[in-house]
Amino acid sequence: MLGISDIYAAPIFKSRNGSIHGYDVIDPLQINAQLGGQEGFNRLITKAQEQHLGWIQDIVPNHMAFDSDNRLLMDIFENGSRSKYYAFFDVQWDHPYEHLKGKLLAHFLGDLYGRCLDKNEIRLQFDENGFSVHFYEWKFPLKVGSYSKVLGTDLNWLTDKIQREEKDYIDFLEIINGFKNLEESTDSSNYYNQLALLKAQLWKLYFSNDLIKRYIEFLISTYNGIPGDAHSLNKLDELLSEQHYKLSFWKVGNEELNYRRFFTINGLLSVHIEEQEVFDHTHQLIFQLINSGQITGLRVDHVDGLYDPVTYLNKIRQRAPEAYITVEKILDIHEHLPSIMPVQGTTGYDFMNLVNEVFVDRVSEKIIDRFYVAFSGQNSTYRDFVKEKKKLFMGQHMAGDIDNLALLLKQIINGDRYGRDMTMYALRRSIVEIMAQFPVYRAYMGDGGLNDEDRIHIKEAIALAENKNPGLINELDFISKILLFEFPADISASKKEAYYHFTKKFQQFSGALMAKGAEDTAFYIYNRFISLNEVGADPSVFGISLKEFHELMMERQKDWPFTMNATSTHDTKRGEDIRARLNVLSEIPRQWLQKVTLWSRLTKNKKKVINGLIAPDRNDEFFIYQTLIGAYSFDDANPEAFIGRMKEYVIKSLRESKRHTNWVKQDANYEEACIYFIDEILKQGEKNEFLNSFLPFQKQVAMDGVINSLSQTMLKLTCPGIPDFYQGCELWDLSLVDPDNRRPVDFQQRMKFLEEIKKNDGSDFIKALKADPTDGKIKLFLISKVLEMRQQYPDLFLKGEYIPLEVVGELNKYIIAFARRAGPVWAVIIAPRFQRQFSQEQHQWKDILLPLPSEAPFDWTNILTQEKLSVKEGLPLEAMFRDFPVTLLVSSAH
């Protein structure tokens, strides 16, 4: 009904119990029962296919949940190196630290291990699945080699109470010996069957023989000891020390770690997807659904975290040659998706930031920049913040990861005459410096080595690192040659492969570090103009020119015509229409900054002094004002709900910035002062001087933002690429970062609006939409009309040429205009920008024509208003904007 062609689904495979997003997969071979399971999926797919909808499925190849319900991981914990899944996870089993050899760090304890043991929080238990160790919701199986030890701990207790000749007693001893023999046996052919049989026999005896049951319960109580009696817990401590996991305080993982995580999330354990066995196992159901036609496309999550992204994608493409495949990939504004990737493109963050930048008036940068420095006291550049926070993050949260990289490099170069004198300390420092300076998420290796773009990025990082750390020149130069593949001619194949391995591991961490240092930290500190603080964006870039925009769109059409065009996703820091509003401020910088100065004076008595610091400080205050401008609702219908959302968001932002408070060590006083500030400045009532000043200004910006929003939507729908609509964004998207943007969507309201649009699209209806755009119906109207046209002329937007159009003279800056052409079919798109500035400077479109190419048709139909017109010299722009804020014309040349 709306014109959507494909459902774009978050992960649907079995995930951790209670998961609300599906990225914490525990079994990729099952459809998530929490979503309705296989039966529910089949029903939904059938309905989708009846509506001719495809299904683009988000898959998570990089990691699985570190969870007690992850049967692959629990199998490893139980069976160690004999587990058929032992090589599935990215774990350094042969870690140089003796206490981590052969173990996986399970750092989920809420306190130091010894204290948790003393408090009896770690307990041994027994059920039909065997022995397991419990810590609250965590349940880890005992390794098979421990069974004979536990069961034989005090056989005298049992022999004193049971006849030695009894069959159950004899069977029990045989079970103990069976576990011992199974552990010592080198025959793996029947290992799992024997283990299952022994467990079943043990459970049967436990269930049927009261003395054996009492004995096992006695053993458990013996191991669990007495709370507070350290001596009584020695047996359990000894037992835990021999397991294939090492229970630890959760903070340990920041400094000692022997597995790779998703970013720094302890509960997401990375997998060796580059191993064929792992790839085949985890993708069984995915390929089954593709081959059956139920899934028609894939979104590959966090492609930068893969060991060898290009090889992985080639494997996917070989098995799914016809599938539509995109990758979640962050690109700098002038960075290119590697052409060696066999995909249709990215998930659209690159488009989102291009289209956002074109609505930012770059002329205002110096004015806003000077004010921000003076007002906030922040005089570091954005890139300085990123480098600083990347270093902070490596020190506080990724020390174990960096140690592992340095250890790997040290092991490799010990046999190299030029590297043998380089110490672990110097190598570690060098890795930290290069990663801190790395300008993009990661580089990529292809069959021919690095492309020129990635080579430039590596050289830039090395040069900056050497400039800052001349004492590390030898180490940095050595690592540079490894990362750039500048090897001696006589290097052995094994040594070259070892250096390749280090490079790939380095790149796996560089992307995660950039995300944490930039998006999740610096974005909440560098508050100059927060519309630019968006996933994949560079906040130091303040707007792009029309020329740049058109050039990038033509490049997009040539290289990646089927890539995605996104404007909001589940990961964006703020909704697309918040950004559209905030961009208006770049058109009126002096008015905006005068208001900030006034508001800061009006709210002075709403701030508190915490430990000698005014709270919120000026940087956080500036952030709050911008957020209110962007997120304040049109109707003020439920101010209490909005205030609640704002308080939750501000607390999250403060903790992410890690300046006055953070997630690990929260400063309740500073947080409460900021909450008080929000409550006070948003308190309803005539005496609130701040609101009396804020609301009229905000409402005007919001109305100007409507034009930006409609223009942004039009560009998403008509620029090269496939438009993507995040749930709920069919109307105004004034959501903040998750969990705010995961709130339930009122689809019934959208259906009601859409039915109304389908029945009424005449001039009176359009006038009513324009007269009151606050409910968002005008945005839905635009989406439905253009999607309808895309269905009617698919080649025009999928394959059509992109032709920039320009007005002669100074008014050209106020519109984004271009044509699309596919054979005889033409479309012209005209989207205004900087309209607040346009009206304040009293410009008019009267007598202004938009020239068209000489070969363009004369006769056109306005898709939005159904008006027909004929032109010879150019399109009269006054007429183009008379009935609707944006224009889409279509014509067929004869």
Q: Which oligomeric state applies?
A: single chain
Q: Quick one: how many beta strands?
A: 27
Q: What proportion of the residues form beta strands (DSSP E)?
A: 5-15%
From the N-terminal CA to the C-terminal CA, the straight-line distance is 32 Å
Strand order of the largest sheet: 20-21-22-27-24-25
The geometry reads as globular
Structural class estimated from helices and strands: alpha/beta
Q: Extract low-pLDDT stretches.
A: none
- Look at the structure and give the mean pLDDT: 94
The portion of residues assigned to helices is 40-55%
For the sheet with most strands, the description reads:
6 strands, antiparallel
Alpha plus pi helix count: 33
Radius of gyration: 31 Å
Features:
globular, 27 strands, alpha/beta, 894 residues, six-stranded antiparallel sheet
Describe the structure.
It is a single chain. The chain is an alpha/beta fold and 894 residues long. It is 46% helix and 13% strand. It contains 33 helices and 27 strands. The strands form nine sheets. A six-stranded antiparallel beta sheet has the order 20-21-22-27-24-25. Strand 21 and strand 22 form a beta hairpin. Helix 16 packs antiparallel against helix 20 (493-519).
Give a concise summary.
With 894 residues, the chain is α/β, with parallel strands linked by helices.
Write the SSE topology:
Elements: E1 6-9, E2 13-15, E3 25-31, H1 37-50, E4 54-59, E5 63-65, H2 71-79, E6 104-109, H3 113-118, E7 122-127, E8 130-135, E9 138-141, H4 147-151, H5 155-159, H6 167-184, H7 191-208, H8 210-224, H9 234-241, E10 245-249, E11 261-262, E12 265-270, H10 276-282, H11 284-291, E13 297-300, H12 309-319, E14 324-327, E15 345-346, H13 349-357, H14 365-376, H15 382-396, H16 399-413, H17 424-437, H18 452-468, H19 473-483, H20 493-519, H21 546-559, E16 564-565, H22 576-584, H23 589-602, E17 608-610, E18 613-615, H24 618-631, H25 639-657, H26 668-681, H27 689-718, E19 722-723, H28 747-759, H29 763-771, H30 777-792, H31 794-798, E20 801-805, E21 815-822, E22 825-832, H32 835-840, E23 849-850, E24 859-862, E25 868-870, E26 875-876, H33 877-880, E27 887-892
Parallel strand pairs: 1-4, 4-13, 6-10, 13-14, 14-15, 16-19
Antiparallel strand pairs: 2-3, 5-12, 7-8, 8-9, 11-12, 17-18, 20-21, 21-22, 22-27, 23-26, 24-25, 24-27
